[in-house]
Protein 1
Amino acid sequence: MAEFDYNGKKIETDDEGYLQNLGDWDKGLAEVLAKQENVTLTEKHWKLIEWIRDYFQKYQVAPAIKSLTKEVMNLENLPDKKEANKFIYELFPEGPAKQLAKIAGLPKPTGCV
Amino acid sequence: MAKPKDKYKVPVLDGKISIPKIVPGATAYEHMIEAQKDDMEALGFPAKLQDGWKAKAIGVFKEILDNNKAVRDYMDICVRCGACTDKCQFFLGTADPNNMPVQRQELMRKVYRYYFTPSGFFKSLSNSQELTEEVLKDWYTYFWQCSECRRCSLYCPYGIDTAEITMAARQIMDSIGLGQKYTTEVIHKVFKIGNNIGIPPAALRNTLDDLEEEIEEEGGKGVKIPMDVEGAEVLLVPPSADFFAMPHMESLKGYAKVFHKAGISYTVSSYASEAGNFGKFIGSYKSTKEINKRIWDEARRLKVKRVIIGECGHAWRAAYNYSNTMNGPFDFLDSKYKQPTHICDFTLGLVKDGVIKLDPSANDDKVVTFHDSCNIARASRMGDFQGGQFTIPRELIKAAANHFVELREGTTKEKTYCCGAGGGLLTEEIMNVRIAGAMPRMQTVKEAVDNHGVNFYALICAICKTQFTKIFPLYGFDEEMVGGIHQLVSNAIVL
């Protein structure tokens, strides 16, 4: 468990930097979490963050990697999954489970992933 | 496509697996993230270390010795012959002497001698050791650098099952509030939601819909992945990674096509949506049994005739070895079938009976090799003949692909190396241990790539798939090489 100050509020994260209280998330906090990951958020990042948050709100779990890849193909007009995968890793070099989920304020996907 | 980070120490591959010069304490700094309060409490453990932990630990140790004759024998019968020392991939990769199986076990045996043998009190005579905080720290460090793969056990002339010792150590640590986050969080999720990942029913259905759509786009018209269907013939229980991760999902597509083509009705379950059983990893009989029970309760509820387990190593061990004594008998199922059946055994049977047809030329772009996963190779069996766990997957690969080569002699079948992340080690905080533990296997991969042009690394374990997908790029290989046997079947099946 770790914590840091954000706008005068104490934000708790687990030992891997994922938000402990998902309700703490807002766009400003996403910027702070992104900075901790050395990721600079652009419009392309935000599109994925919003999509994955919507998905999470609907289904209470992060999307399967295939669903994310498919969404990226649609959003960015990419020809195939390989390109889409490359695109995701360019935005989030440590991978979607680790960085996209973390910055979007989702819990860490567990299990054999 | 993970980028090698500066902090990662990736060995240079020269194709050799040599015994390193020992480096005491080389990985003493490695530390698993400790368990969270609510996960520990949900599993019936104290949230953290409390006053009086030592007496409690010795009490639990005594209970294990009283109830588990094997562990008691293993404490006494090691003669320190050293046959196991160079058999562990974590020792070969890290050079830390505490990762020699005999030395790792000694961390526990010296405590055993102190408390449970007559001469134990005379430290100098018996080389015994009180359970101090420092010893406990060593336990936590090194019993969490063992993947319970049992490669060392294979070479032990006394047949000491070292995984049982690791499990006992983890059981003692959990019972005093010193747990590991990854495994306890995962087990808690199975109890709460039904699977390791935490996929609720609506999300699972959504994923399966997407997958059906993808299969159809790829020419598999009408292939369905039914969920929670009462009265289906088969309950299919894959590891939940097959619903979520890559390349795992490609194998799920393969299973679906097999059922479709064979015309056998089946269903997956949103309640028993996990074949994996992390209860084994922490040596918890109670959790193992409870996770296993979900499968058979669901088989009963859905009134299926048989249960088939997907591509997952320890899942197969837990389902095949323990189901009957933990949650049997299964007289409500059809006695004509092996309960449970491994998906590879099932598919190969259909191929042999001519029910489905595979066209191996569909995989002509691939030179395939096979990595035996430890829990299948050394801890269970497949089919109904000795060595079935070795021949069935290989026969299925050869039916699905024309080009197959074996990995280096002495590192296959029961002698296989662990992927480096089994037994609860598939977590990021110990990435360097995972990289080091994969080193012996990666030496043989390099050889297979250099000498035979291998470009497909076939697996039947969800942990192996995830580990190698992460490890291959760090060692300079394409992660796309990693895949499941049913991924090959998926390509080759004539629909």
Protein 2
Amino acid sequence: MDGYGGRILRIDLTTGKSTKEPTPVDLARDFIGGRGFGIYFLLKEVPKGADPLGVENKLIISSGPISGMMIPGGGKCDWTTKAPLTGGYASASMGGHFTAEMRYAGLDSIILEGISPKPVYLFIDDEKIELRDASDLWGKDTFAVEKQFKDKLGEEFQVAVIGIGGENLVPYACINHDFGRQAGRGGVGAVMGSKKVKAIVLHGTKSIPVADKDGYRKAGMALYKACKDAEGLKDWTRYGTTIVTSWCDEVGALPTRNFSAGSFEDGKNLYGPVMREKIVITDKGCFGCPSPCGKYSRNKKYNSFVEGPEYETIGLMGSNLGIDDIEAVAQANLLCDELGIDTISTGNAIGWAMECYEKGIFTKKDTDGLDLKFGNVEATFTLINKIAHREGLGALLSEGVKRASKKVGKGSEKFAIQVKGMEQSAYATHNATAMLLAYMTCDVGAHHNRSWAITYDLQVGRELVTPEKVARVIWLQNFRPMFDVLGGCRLQWVELNIDRELYVPALEAITGIHRSWQDLEKVGERIWNLTRLFWSRENEDFGRVWDLPSPRFYEEAPKSGATKGQITNFEDVNILLDMYYEQRGWTTDGLPKPETIESLGLKAMVA
Amino acid sequence: MRLYVDSSKCSGCNACRVACSLNLFGENNPKKAALVIEAHFPEPGVYNVRVCTQCGDCAAVCPTNAIKQNEKGAYYVDNVECNLCEACVPECPEEVMFVRSKLADTAWKCDLCGDCVAVCGTSALWIAEKEAVEA
């Protein structure tokens, strides 16, 4: 099939058997790839009520039709599963070179099923597919394992590996690849750990067929030319995502001391240019990327090397913990990567614990003797280790802030900064209503990347609550995740501002199917509704209350910084939801109406 | 003319290698590219890129005279004449002369098409007169 590897690989870990089936033509037509394939298999094959860490859950790894192609950013891999962190839908996007290699091995998706009786790694070299013993790898850190495979098998092999966090089933454990890229959110690493799969090692030498070779080459070259001609290329490549750190600080979006404010008085020490000057040595790109956001750092203070930190980690491990030392943030980043836990959820959870300590809810008796003040770097390092090993206070924090705060009580639920059980990423949303709504309605929990609407807030008036704002959030949610469907990166469009129409002829030449962006957004809308239906299928009480943000964003105006005294009131939070549900064709409790399901052609999928 | 590289600007994205395979074989397959990116991670955290300097050592040893010069003065492999003897491979000082018989029934090398340069977003690659840069 043009534009595809052509095969879905299933690994039954319980029996050790593997099977390959042709990628269904209808699936490719209707769901295209990536997270489209992910939600299709998740809904169809994971039974209702499956334990996320049990034998019935599956880990679905998918590339898309631009993965591994001469298309800017074709290096994104989707990891879909039922999330141990939230009990709902998880779809984590991983950069690097894994997704391209899957396609060169002829694979569109790899589906891990069942549970292996002993630790294994999955070895794929074109047609050779084996589960191999991983007893000697279990307990090792992610970098050591990846290095070991690269040294033994060579540069061409790609490795995805879990750390001790994944082995210990930390609900926000991640999957690591390419010495610094992660499938980070929702606990995909814990699912891999529950299946006793330490790593996937992958190599392929096949070519990916395309429908129109000349058209593809022309369209691919046009995309690269647009990126290279873009005004923003130089600065973006120099700073990557850290380009926004200073802006966030200035507009009050930089999470500070557990999101109690959006500006950090020592934030300047964390800004992109400071980091570049102090620690960055190499620009590191994912597959096919002309504008590499990866900043690889040599951290002299700690005598270590790490990819990053990128903006999210700076926000959560820096300002959110009251830490103003970029080298300390980089080291916290490294520890999380080695141990295989998500820096966003980890930083958020530690921030919550620090606030518990500040408020006297925790004493040293609760913190294993740690003086858990904001700004305590050593305590942060210690807690990262404890979380991955699930020891002491780390065991509590490893459950995520929703569950941890429920256990602790004493009002700590109010400053657990999460939606649907997922810790909020690095945008403080006291007064940014579109971004707040984006977090409230994001299909994995409080994550920013579906609808990065905060610049729009600033553009049109951050406190406004209007149908146009809601429509913008919905449009972004339908459109932006399509890059995760195509197996590519959205950042060329976002940051270099290239014309998205350039992708249309490229996709057509690759797959032989013409799709306008209007067509693609319709696919995005169908997927969005399916993910919502998955949440409601898996959680009997699912509804409006699951979309509410942390009370911090409607009850506690920041006492300092750019958003001092500013807050969104609760009535507006509800108006936002009312407008959102109406525009989505959902009930007032936030569930897709039967006629919406019908009009999107999804009836058969959810029957 | 030859291809030049500044490895310190390379981000390891491999766009050049896909473009290369598309030019040489009409395929999307970086395993059939004529330049190499070595990634040295986690330490020291740098890339090293190896490219053809058009030195001609490969052509000098080819027993079937399969390695010829094109209109740009670049050496290329005539796949009809190549018999996969591999005599050229050890001669290449940059290790960018390739024979992988499972993947192709010809040796291959850089023919200076320039597509790698066109897709490199970090300007790590460029083509210039040999003398102009080396003087």
